[in-house]
Structure prediction request, 272 residues.
Amino acid sequence: MKNLSYVLLGLTILLFSFTACEKETSKYGQFSLEFDNKVGSDAVTLSAEGSTDYPFSTQMSQKFNLQKLGYYVSRIELTGPNGETYSDEVTTGATAAEVNGFYQVLESDANSQSITLKNVPVGTYNKITFTLGVEADYVQDGATGGVLDPANGGWLWNWDSGYIFYKMEGTSPASTRADNTFRFHIGGWKEIAGNVSLTNNVKRITLDFPTNAEVTESSDLEAHIIMNLLAVLDGHHAVDFSTTNMVMSPAAGADIAHSLEDAFMVHGIHGN
Prediction:
């Protein structure tokens, strides 16, 4: 009986060892994201500054063009129906090499619209979660490099207001400004009791995939993510360019930030 116990103990140790080896040899692949900016069903095109060509229109029939468009995406996570999880590494530092997991998606730069996630555990994924903006922990880290560096095109307002995480500029004949321009700079990362000028507009957004994404060691899949500008302009708080044409503070941007929660969707999972 004693010998049988020793045998069972040995088998148990072997089983645990085998399981541990399986975990150590986990397999990884890659998965890409493509951010595609739209105005309804139309592709976004940028106009030259001062252009009076207005290719787009809101539900209020107010025509407009776009001259600048972009946003920050960070802390990307993938999750799956069987418990799969992937978290993109997020780090900050004084140099570009030390900054990871922050992406400045610019309509003027096609390369910035494509993000490749490395070392994604092999498995099935059906959701993506990301932060639209730069969260408090990383603003408080102080001066940073890379896409967050204001000396390198980073959109830092100041340490109180944090980063502008969504920027949209253009022209509309409905705008009552002298040059018919509009500028919407959305930011804000903290709230202080009694200070109504500060608000936290950073959004954590989760999107379902329309089909499962099967990540393997050799797969090269991409989530096609659409950002629909009309969901921003015609959303929870429809924008009237005659009264809303200059948003340049966290508190003033709260309504547009609310509409941004519904501006993103995953249109499809495609192979590259």
